[in-house]
């Protein structure tokens, strides 16, 4: 099969492409003619810019698995333990993930933003790979519209966890992004880079493992030789054997009584979660319909490939694209289905809705990408001719639905700084509750990673109190509970009793404003704890005047004696005297 046929069709298609320049090449067009292209390019850029902004606004301190993976791959002195890189973590390879986390600790003090920016780069690589697989028959504004839609899907609101929690993004995208890039190279017939990226993905995360089967499918749809088609299957078998002989950690016991429907539910909810983040039934339905649609389109493609007929798929502007021209998109669909099946088998024993976890969002979104492109290239003629509105509407709907997952991630932002204080004061109970593994605390302290860096602060501002300093409790102004004084100045501790190594919750309004920082001192005024402010408290704003973000959370050293809670603002400490157990937090 000729290269031109594989990449998009006969000479007539190439002539059409010359007549309709690519977006960004507006030769011989007036200003009004260029405006639609500029608008679509702007729509393409917006989701990417918003993802970068998410990295910037996210907390500095890292989350959850970062601490345990770093603890596993570094020795007690903080040096890289190369052998530990080849152990599995939750049944997944951590060769690349462990190395990246260790480099983040060494080069960037273990902070989150570099991991978030790396996640954006990985997602951008995935987006570029998808863009490169669009067939040549998709030209002009139609192509620009689909590109804008793909941007809105790859950088959807549902992916905020990948960028705002860079640890999560790195874990998943180091497997998923290389797999997608490998599919793109195979789509263009470039075997060596395809195999290299597939191998890279296999070292990053188990989500990449199906790519070896997918590469064989893509090469077969392209009409490559049997040897080339079989080669990735052989390499995949080698990867599978290496995975099985790697050191396996103990696995969690699956608690539920399950049936075939449970595993199917976990699979379909993974694939369909982009269409529903709240309703399991809708996620099951969307996932099942997606798999069914893939099956119908694939059956037509396989039939055509076996019959070696092309008369119904001429590659003209308004005709369905040839199978070879969209081989990578069928491969992407297969990758999504196989990933869903993997999660169904591995997680179905926990719950049929396990696939709705936000960490799997990339799989579901890639499924939507594959559906979109296959419909506008090989779907009904009405959809092919309406590629722009279809792409933009699909992307907008999925982006809007992703708001629920994005909101849940952002909600955690404000609480994460409490972990830094807990680590500083050796509050092991709070650390465990926030998945920071106190067993690795001394290792992290010796590595000098955040929060064990000079720039760590309780957030009180220049010259304000910090851990270890002393405040004059006699000068503290009493901040009474609601009903005593003005409607814009009051506060309370909602968690009783106030003790060390415990998440302590409350709220404070000072002249209608939130506190600058929250402090916990011992009876002598020594600062032995602190936390975070600006937490949402709608319940307080209903009867007090001022900001709706008056909430705070704090933690103190385990050995604190006679703890005192202070809200600090504008150089004055306000002692919170109302303590009640209202179950807030």
UniProtKB/TrEMBL annotation:
Keywords from the UniProt entry: Membrane, Transmembrane, Transmembrane helix
Stretches for region Disordered: 1-27
Sequence intervals crossing the membrane: 35-53, 115-134, 146-163, 170-188, 194-220, 227-246, 282-302, 323-345, 357-376, 383-402
This protein's name: DUF2079 domain-containing protein
Organism: Amycolatopsis regifaucium
């Amino acid at each position: 099969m000729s290269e031109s046929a594989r990449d998009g069709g006969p000479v007539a298609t190439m002539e059409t492409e010359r007549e309709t320049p690519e977006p960004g090449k507006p030769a011989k067009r007036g200003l009004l003619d260029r405006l639609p292209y500029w608008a679509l390019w702007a729509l393409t850029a917006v989701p990417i810019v918003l993802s970068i902004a998410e990295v910037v606004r996210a907390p500095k301190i890292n989350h959850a698995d970062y601490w345990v993976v770093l603890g596993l791959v570094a020795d007690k002195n903080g040096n890289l333990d190369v052998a530990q890189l080849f152990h599995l973590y939750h049944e997944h390879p951590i060769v690349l993930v462990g190395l990246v986390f260790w480099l983040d600790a060494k080069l960037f003090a273990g902070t989150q933003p570099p991991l978030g920016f790396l996640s954006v780069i990985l997602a951008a690589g995935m987006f570029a790979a998808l863009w490169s697989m669009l067939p040549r028959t998709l030209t002009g504004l139609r192509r620009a519209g689909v590109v804008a839609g793909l941007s809105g899907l790859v950088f959807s609101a549902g992916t905020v966890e990948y960028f705002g929690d860079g640890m999560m993004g790195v874990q998943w995208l180091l497997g998923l992004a290389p797999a997608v890039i490998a599919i793109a190279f195979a789509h263009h017939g470039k075997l060596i880079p395809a195999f290299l990226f597939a191998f890279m993905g296999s070292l990053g995360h188990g989500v990449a493992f199906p790519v070896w089967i997918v590469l064989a499918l893509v090469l077969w749809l392209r009409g490559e030789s049997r040897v080339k088609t079989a080669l990735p299957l052989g390499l995949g078998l080698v990867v599978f054997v290496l995975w099985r002989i790697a050191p396996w950690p103990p696995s969690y016991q699956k608690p539920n009584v399950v049936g075939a429907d449970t595993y199917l539910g976990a699979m379909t909810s993974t694939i369909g979660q982009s269409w529903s983040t709240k309703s399991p039934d809708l996620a099951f339905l969307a996932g099942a319909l997606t798999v069914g649609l893939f099956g119908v389109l694939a059956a037509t493609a396989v039939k055509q490939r076996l019959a070696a007929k092309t008369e119904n798929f001429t590659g003209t502007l308004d005709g369905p694209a040839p199978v070879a021209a969209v081989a990578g998109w069928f491969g992407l669909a297969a990758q999504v289905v196989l990933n869903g099946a993997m999660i169904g088998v591995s997680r179905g024993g926990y719950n049929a809705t396990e696939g709705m976890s936000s960490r799997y969002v990339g799989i579901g979104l890639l499924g939507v990408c594959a559906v979109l492109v296959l419909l506008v290239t090989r779907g009904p003629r009405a959809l092919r001719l309406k590629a722009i509105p279809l792409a933009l509407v699909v992307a907008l709907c999925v982006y809007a639905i992703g708001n629920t997952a994005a909101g849940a991630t952002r909600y955690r932002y404000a609480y994460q700084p409490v972990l830094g204080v807990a680590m500083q004061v050796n509050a092991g109970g709070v650390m465990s509750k926030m998945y920071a593994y106190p067993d690795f605390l001394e290792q992290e302290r010796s590595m000098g990673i955040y929060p064990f860096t000079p720039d760590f602060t309780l957030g009180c501002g220049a010259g304000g109190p910090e851990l270890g300093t002393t405040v004059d409790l006699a000068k503290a102004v009493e901040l009474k509970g609601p009903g005593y004084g003005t409607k814009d100045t009051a506060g309370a501790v909602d968690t009783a009793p106030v003790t060390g190594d415990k998440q302590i919750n409350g709220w404070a309004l000072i002249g209608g404003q939130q506190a600058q920082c929250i402090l916990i001192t011992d009876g002598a005024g020594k600062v032995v704890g602190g936390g975070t402010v600006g937490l949402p408290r709608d319940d307080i704003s209903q009867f007090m005047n001022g900001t709706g973000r008056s909430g705070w959370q704090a933690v103190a050293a385990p050995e604190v004696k006679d703890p005192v809670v202070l809200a600090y603002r504008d150089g004055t400490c306000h002692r919170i005297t109302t303590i009640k157990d209202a179950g807030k937090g």
